[in-house]
Specification:
Layout: E1 2-11, H1 15-31, E2 36-41, H2 53-56, E3 63-72, H3 75-87, E4 105-109
Length: 118
């Protein structure tokens, strides 16, 4: 298993536009073998004393935090799929995201412990 995670600041009024954009993206990623995608809209994001989700993405007034992750079979599979996706012309036709993509955070991770999944 290989996990790609994102933290994204999205204008609150763009919730439905974001949902549509994410669902279209999920269908595309699924075609390339992504096992699972979870998109989470901010419910409780506390302000930290030194750092927090909002500071990490320079969230502005009126923006909500989206926490998202994708589960791929393994790193090699993800890297091969990523290369193929970037060759697919539909990648360029996905439309503008309903947020400032320059401020999103992306990271990919190898799980070291898990609970609750078979």
């Amino acid at each position: 298993m290989y996990v790609c995670g994102l933290v994204i600041p999205v204008p609150a009024e763009q919730l439905e536009a974001y949902r549509r954009w994410a669902e279209n993206g999920a269908a595309f990623f699924k075609e390339y073998g992504c096992l699972e995608i979870v998109e989470c809209w901010e419910d409780f994001v506390p302000e930290g004393k030194q750092t927090d989700f909002r500071r990490a993405v320079a969230a502005q007034a009126g923006e909500k935090i989206v926490f998202s992750w994708q589960v791929w079979p393994d790193k090699a599979f993800f890297e091969a799929a990523e290369a193929r996706m970037h060759e697919d012309p539909r990648m360029d036709d996905a439309g503008e995201p309903p947020f400032d993509a320059r401020r999103l955070i992306l990271g990919c991770f190898e799980p070291i412990a898990m609970m609750g999944r078979d």
